[in-house]
Design brief:
Arc Repressor Mutant, subunit A; three-stranded antiparallel β-sheet; mainly alpha; Fic-like fold; 15 helices; 2 domains
């Protein structure tokens, strides 16, 4: 079966008890289109994504830098759902976070854990609801949604927006429709007979997942995790270097409106165009960040060569690329040197403007690798 994107009928409203739910159409079939603007946008997005992936593959010890990409994605995706933890706060230890802000901190760090563990699992497992359910379990562990069946597909009705189902902005399909819809979605991921671009298939997958909304809580975040997972599984990305949630957060109203217009107006073209623009802009920004990382890394390598304790200093910088906020004690523990040696190194870096105290505290001062952090803030 072939489906032209322009002719797509998103689904239908089904009357349930005292409300109507939206049941999306199945998507496991070939997709075609005639819209030239979609073809043009697809070419630009694919080119930008390929450039980003090439940049990431040229980075020695790429894993040192990827953690910050994951933290950036986690903080942006979580902010879409209302958490207030910024990236700089997310990389602090929990003991440094004020009590009333720790739940938000845990949500962001659960996202980091869910992404990192899932990417590791993808080395041996295919993309599947089994994998996404495990990501969901980690996402909701010990935070506000922990009583909403972490890791389990919902068996009751949920809704989006509004204080009750009667005032909801969107009511996803009733639970009895969910298993078949998810089964169709999984088949779509792995259907080798479909020749449509994986970027288009990824856009459709994200829309469908959000429309099914298979979990009682956390479906939005898992749906955004799905994007890098899908792209990595299909060799469009070799590492999770694309943090598309930052674009969605900066354009939150457009993001929600584009998804909603598929359901209300059958405007799948509009959603795919929005998604491809997000891929293109995010990939272009990512390439620029990698270039800045290259330049900073080369500068820090040269700086380390000028230090008396070159080997230790290089070891410290490698640690800072993954954990750019540290105390002297953490420096000592992480690179295996005495507190006295760590103190000398930190003070030298502070004197040379490379580490900056993050607070006015007199004890257990947290130091920022400010120039590196700045690369990820925009």
């Amino acid at each position: 079966m072939r489906m032209k994107i322009e002719d797509f009928i998103a689904g239908k409203s089904i009357k349930c008890y005292k409300y109507s739910c939206f049941v999306p159409s199945l998507i496991n079939h070939e997709w075609t289109w005639e819209a030239q603007d979609l073809t043009c946008s697809l070419e630009k997005a694919a080119k930008a994504l390929a450039s980003l992936d090439a940049c990431s593959q040229f980075v020695p010890d790429i894993d040192l830098f990827i953690r910050m990409h994951i933290v950036r994605e986690a903080s942006a995706s979580s902010r879409i759902e209302g958490t207030q933890t910024e990236m700089e706060e997310a990389i602090l230890p929990e003991t440094s976070i004020e009590e009333e802000r720790r739940n938000d901190w845990r949500e962001v760090n659960n996202y980091v854990d869910a992404m990192a563990s899932s990417i590791d699992a993808l080395k041996t497992l295919p993309l599947s609801m089994r994998l996404l359910r495990e990501a969901h379990r980690r996402l909701l562990s010990g935070v506000r949604g922990e009583h909403k069946s972490p890791g389990e597909i919902r068996t009751s009705q949920n809704w989006i927006g509004g204080h009750s189902i009667s005032t909801a902005r969107f009511i996803p399909p009733a639970p009895e429709f969910v298993p078949d819809l998810l089964g169709d979605l999984e088949k779509f991921w792995h259907n080798e007979d479909i020749k449509a671009s994986h970027l288009v298939r990824c856009a459709i997958s994200h829309y469908q997942f959000e429309s099914i909304h298979p979990f009682l809580d956390g479906s939005g975040r898992v749906g955004r995790l799905l994007i890098p997972f899908y792209l990595m599984c299909n060799h469009e990305l070799s590492s999770p270097s694309l943090y598309i949630s930052a674009y969605f957060e900066h354009n939150r109203d457009m993001y929600y409106d584009a998804l909603a217009k598929v359901r209300t107006d059958n405007d799948l073209i509009g959603w795919v165009l929005f998604f491809l623009e997000a891929i293109k802009e995010t990939a272009q920004i990512g390439c620029d960040k990698f270039k800045r990382i290259f330049a900073l890394r080369d500068e820090m390598n040269e700086y380390s060569q000028s230090c008396a304790n070159t080997a230790l200093m290089q070891k410290l910088f490698k640690r800072l690329y993954s954990f750019p906020r540290m105390t002297i004690n953490q420096v000592s523990e992480s690179i295996g040197c005495s507190y006295l040696a760590a103190n000398r190194m930190v003070k030298k870096l502070e004197k040379d403007g490379l580490l900056v105290p993050a607070t006015d505290a007199k004890r257990n001062v947290i130091y920022d690798f400010r120039r590196y952090l700045e690369i990820f803030k925009t």
